[in-house]
Design a protein that fits this description.
Elements lengths: L1 H13 L8 H22 L2 H10 L2 H18 L10 H10 L11 H24 L3 H26 L10 H25 L13 H22 L2 H23 L3 H20 L19 H9 L10 H8 L12 H9 L1 H24 L4 H18 L8 H16 L29 H28 L16 H11 L3 H17 L9 H14 L4 H13 L7 H11 L7 H10 L7 H17 L4 H10 L2 H14 L1 H8 L2
């Protein structure tokens, strides 16, 4: 298990910096590392050890792990009935004047990326469970996790003291990782303290228990200090619950109370939990998913009101935000993870998820009580899972890459050490002779080898899909994130889009790069195939019909290059529908709408133009030059319509606009 342990150590070591590096590249590298770890586990771990691994991983846990992945796959599949897919697909098909196969999700690429990230998290848990079969590896992982969470807590302190740019890190995710650090350090300290009065020779390793206990206490103080400086009620309540639960488990093992004593401890923990939760301020008359949020997420409230039964697709929260966001708001961060899961996967799924998490926590809690020694692993896992529903309602940090990986590793270690080798399992030292082949052993180990090998192949395919597109996009060793100059290698982005196939963001970025190059190289007049750009934009909208910028670019191409088969008005209306309050698109969209060569402007489009004019004149005066340019470039029929619309908003401004 050396290679899987090293692989897991590499992933844990990356957690403190994952918020500062490219998320897709981090996911791709992590997938490749996990694929190697799973393949090593499948082919080189003794058969009896794998048999023990499968008995530790309860079938209910396998079902819990598989359910979200299957639900995301269902969201990706073409829906046979229009009533099942999202209504945006029908609107997109009408605007493009071509049939589109609808799905539950509104962004195929975003949901597929979310599926890939979830597979990474699930694989991390399985690798952690396999590595934790060895008690020494499990202990080392626990100490490594405590070190990582302590470093994260120190980062949070630096951020709160104003010594580090907040934009460079997700403070909400760091806060939740710090809460987990409180739980892990508390569990380790109690475990060592439980051993101090009666240390055995086997436990007198190179590091004395007193030193480990002191280190755990220091880590606890650093994490607790970070939470107090942060001063958020929700995370502090979650940390107090974790400490209380760990203390109850310690008391049960320390003093071995009878059934009534255990029941009293359980009731005390529940009373303390509900009492602490009552201290958290709750916003009235809002959806329960955002009731504990300290923000005022008006856009999220609207999204929760409109959420369909099957959700809008995993990973689509940010994609839908421009549709519901006000012009005065530019926030992209989700208020709570509960709101994001509810919107993306549906209310029924979220409710089932909460029930499944509590069931797994109860399973680990029961197993922790059956162990005489090393109960800290299962106890910490049970506490972490029991805290998870509470953390989901605090903020959106739990969906971050680092926090989700941390939860999966803790859960894997907890299940790997949830039962002792004497409880129906052969010790690892007796699983195989030194000269035996790893493939020999119990027949029950054959199916887990096949399952782990298949999962490793899936991870390799996913890593190739992500890293391949990233390699093309980074072409010539340039970090291309926005197409803003003539030197942008747009061909590389198009190759990345073609490689990723279903990612609408890359198809849109490719066309934006080519348009930017054409606009910048007016002297050299680079070759530009407008029909090819139109096809690429249709590919973007085929997989991501919510992209307002793609609809606008297609309308501008159809207007400028006279592309046949497009209704410019319909394209502009889709751009308005999908981002009505995006101020970055307003100048181009308003100009295109006023230049549209139609006999009579669509009444619905007139209302959209009137709204944009009202925003510019009354609320966004810095955009008035764009309105002037659009007015002066408008065709005579549209100019008269624009004058009528402007006069309805501000007659005085119309007179100044007419003045040369």
């Amino acid at each position: 298990m050396t290679i899987p342990f090293i692989a897991l150590t590499m992933i844990v070591a990356l957690i403190p910096v994952m918020g500062m590096i490219d998320a897709l590249q981090a996911i791709g590298v992590a997938l490749a590392i996990l694929a190697v770890a799973l393949a090593t586990t499948a082919f080189f771990v003794p058969a009896v050890a794998l048999s023990r691994f499968t008995r530790l991983i309860h079938p209910a846990l396998i079902a819990v792990l598989a359910a979200p992945a299957l639900w995301m796959v269902l969201q990706l599949l073409p829906m046979p009935a229009r009533s099942l897919d999202n209504q945006i697909w029908a609107s997109a098909a009408s605007a493009l004047n071509r049939p589109l196969t609808g799905a539950i999700t509104v962004d195929i690429g975003a949901t597929l990326l979310s599926l890939v990230q979830y597979c990474m998290v699930a694989a991390t848990m399985l690798v952690a469970a396999a590595v934790a079969l060895d008690r020494k590896h499990a202990t080392n992982l626990l100490y490594l996790l405590i070190a990582v969470t302590t470093v994260t807590a120190a980062q949070l302190v630096v951020i709160e003291l104003g010594l580090f740019d907040r934009a460079q890190a997700d403070a909400e995710e760091l806060t939740l990782i710090t809460v987990m650090g409180v739980v892990l350090s508390c569990a380790a300290a109690l475990n060592i303290y439980d051993q101090l009065p009666r240390p055995s020779k086997a436990r007198r390793a190179s590091t004395p228990p007193v030193a480990i206990f002191a280190a755990a206490c220091v880590a606890f103080l650093i994490c607790a200090t970070a939470l107090l400086i942060r001063s958020e009620t929700g995370p502090i309540v979650a940390a107090l619950f974790g400490i209380t639960a760990q203390g109850a488990i310690f008391a049960i093992h320390r003093w071995s109370p009878g059934p009534w004593g255990k029941a009293g401890l359980a009731v005390s923990v529940i009373v303390i939990l509900f009492g602490a939760v009552a201290l958290v301020p709750i916003r009235q008359n809002v959806d329960f998913a955002i009731a504990w949020s300290m923000q005022s997420p008006i856009a999220t409230e609207r999204m929760l009101t409109d959420v369909p039964f099957a959700g809008t697709g995993a990973g689509t929260y940010e994609a839908l935000l421009p549709i519901y966001r006000d012009a005065s708001s530019n926030a992209n961060q989700a208020p709570t993870a509960a709101a994001v899961i509810t919107i993306e996967l549906g209310r029924a799924f979220f409710g089932s998820l909460i029930i499944a998490i509590f069931c797994c926590a109860w399973l680990l809690f029961r197993r922790s009580l059956t162990r005489r020694q090393d109960y800290v692993f299962a106890g910490a896992g049970a506490t972490m899972l029991a805290m998870t529903p509470l953390l989901l309602f605090v903020n959106g940090g739990l969906l971050g890459l680092g926090a989700s990986l941390l939860v999966s590793i803790v859960g894997g270690v907890a299940f790997g050490q949830s039962l002792s080798s004497r409880e129906g399992f052969a010790p690892l030292s007796q699983t195989a002779s030194p000269h035996a082949s790893p493939m020999t052993g119990a027949p029950s180990a054959l199916w887990p080898r096949g399952a782990l090998s298949l999962l490793a192949l899936v991870l390799i395919a996913q890593a190739t899909w992500i890293l391949g597109a990233e390699a093309y996009e980074l072409g010539r060793h340039r970090f291309i994130r926005e197409a803003i100059s003539a030197n942008t290698p747009d061909d590389d982005i198009r190759r990345a889009a073609a490689f990723a196939a279903v990612r609408g963001d890359l198809w849109t970025k490719s066309v934006r790069a080519r348009i930017a190059r054409r606009e910048a190289d007016t002297a050299t007049k680079p070759s530009f195939d407008s029909s090819l750009a139109g096809e690429d934009l249709k590919s973007a909208l085929r997989y991501a019909p919510h992209r307002s910028d793609a609809w606008l670019m297609l309308a501008l191409l159809a207007e400028r290059d006279k592309l046949a088969g497009y209704d410019i008005g319909a394209l502009l209306k889709m751009s308005y529908y999908t981002a009505p309050n995006d101020m970055t698109l307003l100048p181009l969209r308003l100009g295109a709408a006023l230049r549209a060569e139609t006999k009579a402007l669509d009444p619905e489009l007139q209302d959209m133009i009137r709204r944009d004019i009202g925003v510019v004149v009354t609320r966004q005066p810095e955009l008035r030059p764009a309105l002037v340019a659009a007015y002066r470039s408008a065709s005579p029929p549209q100019r008269s319509i624009a004058e009528r619309l402007i006069s309805e908003v501000d007659p005085d401004y119309l007179r100044s606009l007419r003045t040369p």
